[in-house]
Amino acid sequence: MAHVHADTPFAPLGLAVLTVSDTRGFDDDGSGDLLGERLTEAGHALVERRIVPDDVYRIRAVVSAWVVRQDIQVILVNGGTGFTPRDTTPEALAPLFDKAVDGYSELFRQLSLETIGTSTIQSRAVAGLIDRTLVFAMPGSPKACATAWDGILAAQLDARTRPCNFVAMVLPEARHCASRQASADEDMAEGAGA
Q1: pTM score, whole prediction
Q2: Do the beta carbons of residue 104 and residue 138 sit within 8 Å?
Q3: I want to staple 142 with a disulfide (CB 3.0 to 4.6 A). Which of 30, 137, 148, 160 is the partner?
Q4: Could you read off the pLDDT of 104-144 as tens digits, one per residue?
Q5: CA–CA distances in Å: residue 104 to residues 19, 100, 114, 137
Q6: Nearest-CA neighbor of 75 among 147, 148, 10?
């Protein structure tokens, strides 16, 4: 089970939030609001926030522009992950990924099973690494965004989470994940009162 090591300093990241919707604006973007609030409460910076229609090329254009920026290490995309004809977020993002983060999708659906039952199979949440930028896409409901942030992203975007987190992948100066043996040795030392 993951846990936080107090001797490792927190490393704030620059995040961007992209809401994919044909109908929402900033006045009624509860999911974008929730993600912005959660990430700033965690100590990260909300660098930019945008809303684009459900369009493969508009999604790719924004994500591609953000990936080349030095001040953005993580992009959170909400919306467009279902099965309607207009849901194209996974198709927009997957070709851009250098590496897919398959475990994110699997864990997101596992956590969603607890609240929405078997309807979780209709979520096409995806994640990947583009150059040194992480991209996480999730459904557009505030509840789904809370599931993704609270259940997965808050810990994985925290340099203190052990045995592993994503911070070292996006911040070259960050400490890499501890080896399993080193992490086990630390746990045993803590348990022994060292």
Answers
A1: 0.88
A2: no
A3: 30
A4: 999 999 999 999 999 989 999 999 999 999 999 999 999 99
A5: 19, 9, 16, 9
A6: 148
